[in-house]
User: Fold this.
Amino acid sequence: MVNIAILGFGTVGSGVAEVMEENAVSISHNAAEDIRVKYIVDIRDFPDSPFADKLIRDFETVVSDPDVQVVVETIGGRKAAYEYTKRALEAGKSVVTSNKELVASRGHELLEIAKRKNVNYLFEASVGGGIPIIRPITQCLTANEIDEIYGILNGTTNYILTRMITDGAPFGEILKDAQKQGYAEADPTADIEGYDAARKICILADLCFGQSVDPESIGVEGISGVTLEDIEYARRLGYKIKLLGRARRLPGGHIAAYVAPHLISKTSLLSNVDGVMNGIVVHGNALGECMFYGAGAGKRPTASAVVADIIDAVKHRRARKYLGWEESGPGYVVDTDDVSSRWFLRTGSGLDVIGRAFGNVRLISYPGEYPGAGPDEYAFATPEMTGRELAARTGEMEVRSRFRIL
Ligand code: HSE
Assistant:
């Protein structure tokens, strides 16, 4: 019998308790051992919960109980979650988590402790919710040199952008509705400003390229600046606007990593990843391209990934799974402004200014009542150039929007 403790009885923690109970027989079969939830730690009271008999308030009980072999951290954030994870690993217990903030910022350190103590620190649920992506990268795709990984990593922003397209309503209005329906948090900053996606792409980059990428060191741009006009221009060009996290290997051992809204072709699979769904594309030198699609958030999809990690931690109790990356040095991640792409530009400047900066460009017809060109603005796609070069060329221009094209 293996005993586990769940830290945090919120959405994910309660989902884990439910799935553990509902699928107890198959879970024990798959782990080749009985697994039982011994404790659930939360400072709040849940007198009506079917798990009330397991609820305790004090983490000390968990860390000092030699019968607890696996600790499930679903508290979130970097304070208590960090302290408890560290102490549980130091006490020789495996830890399983959905906490992308902690893995992205302290993963290297926590994995080193896990290695020293010969226990597991597993985090499949930290990226893409229920989508298997960490395990494919660290197991199924290890024959490859991975050149690039990118995708729609945040369900809230994808939901908002999808509804802006389908409803033709502006960002602020859809955000309010999304909050009312429970898709967006009361404080939506981490989602809409791209920080959540940044943590996820950094974890993916850590694993794919082998050195740590600090979410605070990469370029991050959210979707609050995306307008209906941008969406319509993109449509006319045969594209959709999606928030992407991207990481790719560059010559000389450097990598590029960033989060930004992109125009992506309607012919790509990723452009059909709509609503709260997530999609992640991996490019390996042997495999070519491969895409992972599914529910990137939500109680049960996330619990599905956490419980699979619990089973894996139980199966690897004696021989821990190798998982880890090195610390990176200065300059490992290049400045996002030095990363090249084609760009979509929308400007209030005249054709003379545009011509001086970019030569002849093919204008995208204005989405208002004057086809061909707008009454006071122009939009077009540029050739490939770095963000720095784009900034230099647009120095004189009134730029209304600029987005990378995938
Ligand atoms: N807020 C996140 C999202 C939850 O919208 O994708 C899953 O990490």
